[in-house]
Write a structure and sequence with these properties.
With 259 residues, this protein is α/β, with parallel strands linked by helices. The chain has one domain (3-258): Rossmann fold (3-Layer(aba) Sandwich). Helices cover 45% and strands 17% of the residues. It has twelve helices and eight strands. An eight-stranded mixed β-sheet has the order 1-2-4-3-5-6-7-8, with helices on both faces. α2 packs across α3 (93-104) and α4 packs antiparallel against α8. The protein starts with a strand and ends with a helix.
Length: 259
């Protein structure tokens, strides 16, 4: 398990060198880098890959959190590993971080695959209520409601063991890290910034996503010039888990187009 200290925070990451355009994966709120395993398994063994636990999640340090710091962590790690011109694949807040990275560090980003995300997600009232609940009562009291937003009805009914595992991943996230990322999302609106992006962008929306519904992702695709969108039937908020082949195909197609 590799670790590195950058920007005064120790990050846990997974890196596989390879040939051609690298792929960087950025996680959602309340998850760690393992959510990409099924996507990675569907990519070629020679594809260079990087995934990481953002600050306050997984095995990375708890630390102060802002969207700028989350973006800087990714740029610092990519620079540390010598990665340039990558496809950045992010889900939810990971997709917001990807947008921020493309705007601030265009030499690091050749294309974007943005899953179930937006230029702005939710509103201050909703995020403040969630932050207050997490700080007062912990994550577990919200777990069932969050899982309903994460996964399709079919997944929740048929994949009970997996659902229990993802509940564990969620509830074992440090409360401070979870609340910190909630605040970072609350305070971020990339609408004007992302409208100035100029790079290949593929947006994926889950038809049953209750966290970032398809109309929010469609608005993102309309904001970024030239972006395309695909709506995934029977999928919730985490297509990397429910429809990994679609995510892998989007990455393969973008890498091929960039070669």
């Amino acid at each position: 398990m590799p670790f590195v200290t950058l920007n005064s925070v120790t990050l846990h990451y997974r890196y596989r060198p390879g040939a051609g355009v690298p792929v960087v994966f950025l996680n959602s709120l309340g998850t760690d880098l393992r959510i990409w395993d099924a996507v990675i398994a569907r990519l070629g063994a020679d594809v260079p890959l990087l995934c990481l636990d953002k600050r306050g999640h997984g095995l990375s340090d708890d630390a102060p959190v802002t969207m700028s710091l989350l973006v800087e962590d990714v740029s610092a790690l990519m620079n540390h590993l010598g990665l340039r011109h990558a496809v950045i694949c992010g889900v939810s807040v990971g997709g917001m971080i990807a947008q921020g990275l493309a705007a601030a560090w265009p030499d690091l980003v050749a294309g974007l695959v943005l899953c179930c995300t937006g230029t702005r997600i939710g509103d201050a009232e909703g995020w403040n209520a969630r932050i207050e609940t997490v700080r007062r009562d912990g994550i577990a009291v919200m777990a069932e409601a969050i899982l309903e937003r994460w996964f399709s009805t079919r997944f929740r009914r048929t994949q009970t063991a997996a659902l229990a595992g993802y509940r564990n991943m969620l509830t074992r996230t440090p409360a401070a890290g979870y609340a910190g990322v909630c605040a970072a999302i609350r305070d971020t609106d990339f609408t004007e910034q992302s409208a100035r992006l100029s790079l290949p962008t593929r947006c994926l929306a889950g038809a049953e996503d209750l966290a970032t519904p398809p109309d929010l992702v469609a608005a993102l695709a309309e904001t970024i010039p030239g972006a395309s969108i695909e709506i995934l039937d029977g999928c919730g908020h985490l297509p990397c888990i429910e429809t990994p082949e679609v995510v892998a195909r989007s990455i393969r197609d973008m890498r091929e187009a960039l070669t």
